[in-house]
Write a structure and sequence with these properties.
Helix content: 55-70%
CATH class of the largest domain: Mainly Alpha
Strand content: under 5%
Largest sheet: none
Shape: elongated
CATH architecture of the largest domain: Orthogonal Bundle
Structural class: mainly alpha
Radius of gyration: 19 Å
Number of strands: 0
CATH superfamily of the largest domain: Helix-hairpin-Helix base-excision DNA repair enzymes (C-terminal)
CATH topology of the largest domain: Endonuclease Iii, domain 2
């Protein structure tokens, strides 16, 4: 298992690839960012960014989204996975924002997770990016990188991955670490063809070394 010191060292090396890591979801307001993050659950940022201009063109504010016909919202986000459920959630969330939060995005994770369609990961992303609340959101990329580096156990749940990262990384680096790990996992330490051969983290990465050994075994058999 990677130590605290080695975990921070690994993050520093990732930052050499992505020194200015930040979220890739397009938005024009706090409200739009909340909606974009909600839509990104089990969907790619690319697919969300393709759909949200069409959505926000018609319903750019919380007031307009709250009154939006669900059929029209669905038609505007139908290229995104689970679009029917998400359409219902973003309309219901918009109404709750008006009724309980004066039309503003709440600043605490506890309040955020009370909204329909907002889970822990979404709350962490929104609270961290909009309000600088120390947070690490664990998506598929963060989980994959954490397990390949042995920052956590291979059997760790999403909550356990988050807990391991929070224990090993200083709180003032959580938000930046989240974005750095996402980009590193999305573009470098990919699921199918990770760039292990020339990776700066290879000496720290048990998973990467195993991938290379497996490749060598396959070559030897041929």
């Amino acid at each position: 298992m990677l130590s605290k010191k080695k975990t921070v060292e690994a993050i520093d090396l990732m930052k050499e690839y992505y020194p200015n890591a930040e979220g890739e979801l397009n938005h024009g307001s706090d409200f739009q960012y909340l909606i974009a993050v909600m839509l990104s659950a089990q969907a790619t940022d690319v697919s969300v960014n393709k759909a949200t201009p069409f959505l926000f063109e018609a319903y750019p504010t919380v007031e307009k989204m709250a009154k939006a016909p669900i059929e029209d919202v669905m038609s505007r986000i139908k290229t995104i996975g689970l679009y029917k459920v998400k359409a219902k959630n973003i309309i219901n969330t918009s109404n709750i924002l008006i009724e309980k939060f004066n039309g503003e995005v709440p600043r605490t994770k506890k309040e955020l997770v009370s909204l329909p369609g907002v889970g822990q990961k979404t709350a962490n992303v929104v609270a961290g990016d909009l309000f600088n609340v120390p947070s690490i959101a664990v998506d598929t990329h963060v989980e994959r990188v954490s397990k390949r580096l042995r920052i956590c156990k291979q059997s760790a749940t999403v909550d356990e991955v988050e807990e391991a990262l929070m224990k090993k990384i200083p709180a003032d680096r959580w938000i930046d670490t989240h974005h750095t790990m996402i980009l590193f996992g999305r573009y470098h330490c990919t699921a199918r063809k990770p760039k292990c051969e020339d990776c700066l983290l290879l000496e720290l990465c048990a998973g990467g070394q195993k991938i290379l050994r497996d490749k060598e075994k396959l070559k030897a058999k041929k």
